[in-house]
Amino acid sequence: MAKLKTHFVCQECGGESAQWSGKCFECGAWNSLVEFKEAKLPKNSKSSSKMSSGEVPSIQSLNSFTHENFSKRVSSFFPEVDRVLGGGFLWNSLLLVGGIPGIGKSTLLLQIVGRLSKSYKCLIVSGEESGLQVADRAKRLGLDLDSIQFLSTNNLEEAESLIQNYEPDFIVVDSVQTLATSTLESSAGTISQIREITQKFLEIAKSRKCIVVMVGHVTKDGSLAGPKLLEHMVDAVFYFESLHEGALRILRTQKNRFGSANESAVFEMSEDGLVEVLNPSEQFLSERQRGVSGTSVAALVDGTRCFLVEIQALVQRCFQGFPRRTFQGIDQNRVALLLAVLEKYGIDFSNYDVYVKVAAGGRIEEAAADLAIAAALASARLDKSIPEDVLLLGEVSLTGGIRSVQHLDIRSKEASRMGFKKIIVSESGNSKKISVPMGAQVLKIKNIAQLKDQLWAKSYSTVNKEVGA
Ligand SMILES: Nc1ncnc2c1ncn2[C@@H]1O[C@H](COP(=O)(O)OP(=O)(O)OP(=O)(O)O)[C@@H](O)[C@H]1O
Ligand SMILES: [Mg+2]
User: Given ligand 1 and candidates 97, 100, 105, 239, which is best to mutate, with the most ligand atoms within 8 Å of its CB?
Assistant: First the structure.
């Protein structure tokens, strides 16, 4: 029996210590050290500088590493996924996909495997689900069951030896938290296990011509369970999250060594699986009512993508007690601040109930939507509708001034694509960054007082710029 070594591992950063202490020496976290008994690895199995393929490292020119077959990207056959990956999968890479339970990680990867398996040898290693469960899902998704190979195991060594024999091109590990190596006494999901599993799949990805995608669970605060070390070890990290309430999902890049870390793709979960949504704005605005008071449109940026969302406000006379303030999808402090600013500019909300929500279950976290929220509130209170082709972009300061926002180019491009003809922005913004088509107008305002004039003046008399006119 191998000799057991005891050490303490920090659950926050993965730092190790020979003795227990209340505070981790590496990251300073309190009460994070947990005891681990680790079986000493036999000398010949210890990871050394020798690659598992048997190659001895040597210094070579970069040119000797270029190989047409290796540098060519592998398409996932999902154009949106390819865009997020930076042009497709790269050979010898180890990727991590994180997301909360039930968000659709296994479904997305199974669909990718379903398409890839027509051209490549694909294997799903699952420590979470049985073959029956995965086959059932594959059937529902309409995939060819014969071409997808599946291995159900919780044991790393078992998985490794079968991978060596089968030699897959594409491996899905579902999930890194459910596999365990028998060289450690700790159970699956602990920091030392996660580190060993990741290290092993890193070796597999780098030493043979294949691509490995690992699924990772996320903790309550939304970060990947396991030390940050896990994110450092892999080549790219993606999060699969819910975009709006309901069926919309977004795949976001958190880190990508081979592409932009600022990409995202939108999907819709349906009975037939995940479907790429190429035009999310259209979906969010599809049921917008025109010509009514209390609605406006804001442009939100996520990575390099822009989504137009509808903001709805209802302001009703309060006849009893304190006026109600009810908000959905918007931070209540942000609306409270905007109400105070509007009050200062003569729009009274003191005896009115105020309700604000983002349509289609959306969420607004960007200050860039301030002006659109303020406009919806003013529109509801004054019972005057905002012209349907107006989009508002601006942050509102406590003095009532309008500040410019970032990504004016991305936002105005999306607005123009969706047919908005008048874009109201801050006077201080760089209008060169605004791209609008022929005939569209960019209207500049300095403060909340001018907002009213611009929205409800009979004609747009204070146009500062008319592009293409
Ligand atoms: N018949 C069905 N029709 C539509 N959607 C379904 C159906 N069956 C499952 N789903 C969707 O698939 C989701 C589960 O997806 P999946 O198992 O891929 O998630 P996951 O992120 O891998 O979860 P976990 O972390 O628990 O493994 C469900 O939450 C549900 O929304
Ligand atoms: Mg799953």
Answer: 105
